Amino acid sequence: MIRFLGALAAQGRYLLVAGLATGVLLPPLAQAMRPWLPEMVAGLMFLAALRIGPRQALGAARDLPGVLALVLLLQLALPLAVAGGAAALGLGGTAVATALILMAAASPISGAPNLTVLSGGDPAPALRLLIVATALLPVTVLPVFLLAEGLGSPAAVLAAAGRLLAVILLAAGAAFLLRATWLRAPRPETISALDGLSALAMAVVVIGLMAEAGPTLLSRPAELAGWLAVALAANLGLQIVADRVLARGPLRDQRLPLSVAAGNRNIALFLVALPPGTTDPLLLFIACYQVPMYLTPLLRRRRGG
């Protein structure tokens, strides 16, 4: 089994593409898996923390100010700038503006460390950014929801952010306890097996996340193409900009994991807070957003990060 999972790790990038295709081509399977997404995402978080271990996850204290500054830039300054730009262009409250503002305001996805591993980088900085960003989300999201047009209730977002933080801390805590008691010094083949298991888990998760894409491809292909273009530009564009900016700062050696986390955000967190009229287009954007997300390892590894 260890050898089989290690072989999966070597093909992890292609497993993600297979998961994307399965979610689009088999809508009934995607719909059936959708209710289990929270549990599967928690499992991804557990696997990432188990692979990294507590010592690497905590990192150096000198990195904390840079991580805090990055969180404030990504989750506060960026969404406010997007909201201001949308208002200036007369696009405030539109579906596209709402999707981009919420994406910019969200913390990184729980699978950011897993994506980093498949991209050939160190997942520990991505996990640190994920934990700090999720912990600060109740603080950074309030100004965005108060100032931007067409968003929902800040109270619902705060409750959802609290639940997400609890899941992350519980999953990471359980994984760190397991590392301390059973897996203190994992061998390289064990790490490779964990990477293969993470890749397989992510390929399964994305099937459920693509539940909206298959039916829309058949009924409204032009609408799907438009949202896919927006998702590609937002996700990959933010990764490229973050990589270039980080290359000039003190976190330059961590720019691959941090830029992967910067571009891949947990926008689905905000579904609980949205007015009913904005939910349908956002679900389609979230489905399209999985495409650049799950192509990230293929693109980033190919160009060397």
From TrEMBL:
Keywords: Membrane, Transmembrane, Transmembrane helix
N-terminal signal peptide: none
Transmembrane segments: 12-30, 36-54, 66-89, 95-117, 129-148, 154-178, 199-218, 224-246
Name used for this protein in its record: BASS family bile acid:Na+ symporter
Origin species: Rhodovulum kholense
